[in-house]
Amino acid sequence: MKDLIRLKVLQIVLNTLLFKIVDNPVNALLTGNYIGILVWGAGLGITMHHASDSTKQMLADLSEAVSNIVRFVIRLAPIGIFGLVAATFAETGFEALAGYAQLLAVLVGAMLFIALVVNPVIVYVKIKRNPYPLVLKCLRESGVTAFFTRSSAANIPVNMALCEELKLHKDTYSVSIPLGATINMGGAAITITILTLAAAHTLNIPIDFMTALLLSVVASVSACGASGVAGGSLLLIPLACSLFGISNDVAMQVVAVGFIIGVIQDSAETALNSSTDVIFTAAACEAAEAKEAAQAS
Description:
Elements: H1 2-21, H2 25-31, H3 34-47, H4 53-92, H5 95-127, H6 132-149, H7 156-165, H8 170-183, H9 186-202, H10 209-223, H11 237-241, H12 248-260, H13 262-296
């Protein structure tokens, strides 16, 4: 019976995903279909690659304007969060803090697992030696700074200086570091996935492994569009929640929870995102140098 329910949920999720992807772009904007908006945005981005320079500059200026508005809204978020927290404490007391602490522990634990287990394994596959000296150096010199700035974009100069210190190829890191600050958002994908799963669990929506895997893929793709400012990943949670038919009202409550725990969650997320940029760049450069040396010999 449970297998049948899980299969039905997976079928509903896949059906919802397919129809949201092919939705009319105007209807997607009117109904808040974030998946449809993302797909149409990606399609327009690919086709606009062949646009004139003036059009590209206009789009770049528009993007910067929207980013500035997002930064302004995020700066005002603590005021709204204070109201939400005050109302919660008035109704439930400090018992609500236990639930927030559990969720925060899961988020930070998952990010530590990626930083100290998954990333070293990937680096070892590339460089074929102990990866921890490189991983720990990047976490210490890039991750710690990113933890306090809470902005991947603001940490770009730190990463560039670290790459220079590691004597990496400039033509490589001058591209990978700014690009990674925009699209290499592993911590953001973790945040989107876990908070969406938490919302589904709260609403008693059964999630099997394949559905969770599909959610992880969608979250990873969505995280590439996360803004490089504090709290940018939280604004993509409604997109992931829409896979399970979770309403925008509930999704925005999840976003509010994310802002409440964001002081630690967003700091750890940014530390993972930013340090990983240098780790993978260094691994790629070392692997390329080893390959060139092998060919020369």
